[in-house]
Write a structure and sequence with these properties.
mainly beta; seven-stranded antiparallel beta sheet; six-stranded mixed beta sheet; 58 strands; 8% helix; 45% strand
Length: 785
């Protein structure tokens, strides 16, 4: 018997083959389209992260002025893709961080027509000064994301370089008003990998020194290599243009044939004194040190002294970046008298001090002192060259302290001035007295005649008008006395002379705390409003004894304990005393710097450029006090109780008359308590009245505000006022530093000018105690707008 044909097994096989084919097609589509798209997203996200890290690198570079320790920045150069069960990933994406142009002499930064005064002018004499530099470039090597830009640093600017253009990702800090801040890159670096790398930034030449430069004939001009277009520089320099209140007259970007970069030239306004600050940073290998470039006088020039007296003079050896050179040899010689030693090695500040002895020198003459950093033998001295300096001292004849025999004249003596605040003569007027400028800005000095002479002519003088001045003459009164006023000019020793009728006397003073910020020795610990109860914050204050207002620009913070590594407030908002890493409360203008995630210490904090949040420099009027808030010191993990911990603080400030000064002191906080972790009572503020008055010239809304404040601990410190319009804009502020004790009344006037008037305002009042605890109150008032 014959069986029928049966082909059912063939249909099963065909189905299996078709199903397998569909799986192959689906997998191939997944591999060809889905995997690349997902990997492209991974690469794109990595590119955003590396741009943020490059911005951190840029921020470290532009704020490195004055730092001595190497800084490190972590860069994640490449990325890896997520693991897949069946699909296949390409190899990890890598990236390269490299220098560009640092070995090319054409990629330099040049300053032309910049001149300085004094001995510094032997170097800064208008001659073009060229500084080799270059670019730092991150170049990605992605497998899928082919349009990713290179990210590059140049001339304080971070930019993203696409195929057809480069776009600035940050602003520039090279020119800011009258301040010129230049950072150059030195060394050779090329590092490629898929993981993270640590890039070290070595401060080869840096300090907080600034040099005042201006133009002699032609305008001061800056020129630098750039890969940004002129339109990008239009935006970067817009707020520095002279028509916008800045000092940039013109700029242009010129194409350089055959080069990978163009040339930016910036022309500055003439007859303006600019503050020039320069730093050289080394990266990678082949980093070169800076040699000495010029010698300048630092202190003691034009000092006056008597025959047989001694005085000191100090010089500073600098490199081409105006920064100090250590261990340079300075040779010395004097026209007459003796300079000792005859050779000195410069210290860590680049300075060398010599003592001049005028013994045997006839009075009434200037004496030239010659100093040289030239080490080549048989080189003749030339005071006009950068490495040679001539300083002068004036040797005076010692005045007679008693009348000539038989002359019929009278004795002249100084009276003891130590009954005045700030003046101390512990061993009488025949020995040096001290004048503490932080306690008194002048001294009244009285002389007397014996026997009494009425109407006698009196002459006064000092041996060094750079330290102190007096009125030149006077006339004795009915009791034979006359007075003059000693006005301190600088710290140092000064002798005040008086003479009348052939007799005379002298009185020596040591002026202290003049031309400086005075630390008030009041550092206390405090616990900020973080989650713990450890007093890791520190408050302290300084008083302006400079004789004029000052602008505080930088604060260096260096704990002695190496286990204290970080300063982090760890709270929001970012613009309050206890919620910023650094806050400076001053009477003219406050300043704050807040870092996302904190910052390492030691560190020099530039108040108007550092951090993710800042609001400019602090300004302090003459005789006023500024309070510093540092929050909080940690060991990298948790807060450190700062009671008894030494911290070296250096405050850099600029007097209103020009120049840059520094004040270094060590604070040792005592236990304070308070703040967010508890430990002292918070003060309270109650607005008792807000009286309206209309200003007519110009039209304005004015409010006389009265506030009752109280604090159970009896340590009221200050009251801060804000006038806020209906949009939330603060239109006026005021601070009353006069409250104290456990209860007080404060009164201030707040004003909304013509273009600020509104239909209603909120008056906000915040009271602080000395432990930085706060209390607040507010009131809504009507306006005329």
């Amino acid at each position: 018997m014959r069986l029928r044909d049966d082909d059912r097994a063939q249909s099963v096989q065909i189905g299996a083959v078709l199903l397998f084919a569909m799986l192959v097609v689906a997998f191939s589509s997944y591999q060809a389209f889905v995997v690349p798209n997902q990997n492209r997203a991974v690469e794109f996200n990595h590119n955003q992260d590396i741009r943020d890290q490059m911005q951190d690198l840029r921020n470290e570079l532009v704020s490195i002025h004055g730092e001595t320790a190497t800084r490190s920045v972590t860069l994640t150069l490449g990325t890896r893709y997520p693991a897949r069960l069946v699909a296949v990933n390409p190899g990890p994406a890598s990236g390269t961080i490299r220098t560009s142009g640092t070995a090319d002499s054409g990629a330099n930064l040049t300053i032309v027509n910049a001149t300085a005064s004094g001995e510094t002018g032997d170097f800064w004499n208008g001659t073009g000064r060229r500084y080799d530099t270059g670019f730092l470039v991150y170049q990605p090597s992605y497998n899928v994301y082919g349009q990713a830009p290179e990210t590059a640093y140049e001339n304080t600017v971070l930019s993203n370089r696409f195929a057809d253009e480069s776009l600035a990702a940050t602003g520039q800090t090279m020119i800011d008003g009258k301040r010129i801040s230049l950072v150059t890159i030195n060394g050779s670096l090329s590092r490629t990998q898929a993981g993270s790398t640590s890039l070290d930034l070595e401060p080869v030449s840096t300090s907080t020194t600034t040099v005042a430069v201006s133009n002699d004939s032609s305008n001061v001009t800056l020129s630098a290599a750039t890969q940004l277009s002129e339109s990008e520089w239009d935006a970067l320099l817009a707020d520095q243009r002279d028509e916008n209140g800045g000092h940039v007259l013109d700029y242009e970007v010129q194409t350089i044939a055959g080069a990978r970069y163009d040339r930016l030239s910036v022309t500055l306004e003439p007859n303006v004194s600019y503050r020039l600050r320069m730093t050289k940073v080394g990266v990678g290998s082949q980093v070169t040190a800076e040699d000495e470039a010029y010698l300048t006088d630092a202190a003691g020039n034009a000092t006056r002294l008597e025959t047989g007296d001694t005085t000191t003079v100090t010089l500073e050896l600098r490199d081409a970046y105006n920064n100090p050179v250590t261990d340079g040899q300075i040779n010395a010689s004097a026209e007459s008298g003796t300079l000792s030693p005859n050779q000195v090695a410069t210290d860590e500040n680049g300075q060398a001090t010599f003592t001049y002895d005028s013994t045997g020198v006839a009075g009434g003459q200037w004496v030239d002192l010659q100093f040289s950093a030239v080490t080549e033998p048989a080189t003749s001295f030339d005071g006009t060259t950068p490495r040679n300096v001539t300083m002068r001292v004036y040797v005076e004849s010692e005045p007679s302290r008693s009348p000539p025999a038989g002359s019929g004249a009278y004795n002249v003596t100084w009276l003891d001035p130590s009954d005045q605040t700030g003046i101390d003569c512990p061993n009488g007027v025949d020995n040096p007295c001290t004048l503490d400028f932080s306690q008194t800005s002048e001294a009244t000095l009285s002389m007397a005649t014996d026997p009494i002479v009425d109407g006698g002519a009196v002459q006064y003088a000092t041996n060094d008008t750079q330290v102190g001045t007096v009125s030149a003459s006077g006339t004795t009164n009915a009791v034979g006395e006359n007075s003059t006023t000693l006005t301190p000019v600088n710290n140092g020793g000064v002798t005040v002379y008086t003479s009348s009728g052939g007799g005379g006397d002298r009185l020596s003073f040591e002026i202290i705390n003049r031309d400086t910020l005075v630390y008030n020795d009041d550092a206390v610990t405090n616990d900020g409003p973080d989650t713990d109860s450890v007093a890791g914050g520190v408050n302290f204050s300084v008083t302006n004894g400079f004789g004029e207002s000052v602008t505080i620009t930088d604060v260096r913070i260096a704990p002695a304990n190496s286990a204290i590594t970080t300063l982090s407030d760890d709270v929001f908002p970012n613009d309050e005393p206890l919620a910023s890493e650094v806050y400076v409360a001053a009477d003219l203008s406050d300043a704050h710097v807040d870092y996302g995630g904190g910052t390492g210490v030691p560190r020099t904090v530039d108040l108007d450029t550092d951090g993710q949040s800042n609001d400019g420099n602090a300004q302090l009027s003459d005789g006023a006090t500024a309070t510093f808030y540092l929050y909080e010191f940690t060991d990298g993990t948790s807060s450190v109780d700062m009671s008894g911990e030494d911290v070296e603080v250096t405050v850099t400030y600029q007097p209103a008359s020009g120049g840059t000064e520094t004040k270094t002191f060590t604070i040792t906080p005592t236990g304070g308590g308070g703040g967010g972790g508890g430990g002292s009572s918070a003060p309270s503020a109650t607005i008792t009245s807000a009286t309206y008055s209309a200003g007519s010239s110009p039209p304005s809304d004015r409010y006389d505000v009265t506030v009752d404040v109280a604090d159970a601990d009896g340590d009221l410190d200050r009251v801060e006022y804000e006038l806020v319009d209906s949009s939330g804009t603060v239109v006026d502020t005021a601070t009353d530093n006069g409250v104290s004790g456990s209860s007080d009344t404060s009164a201030e006037q707040l004003v909304a000018q013509t273009n600020e008037r509104d239909s209603s305002y909120t008056i906000r009042v915040t009271v602080y105690d000395s432990a930085s605890n706060t209390g607040s109150g507010q009131a809504v008032v009507s306006g005329s707008g």
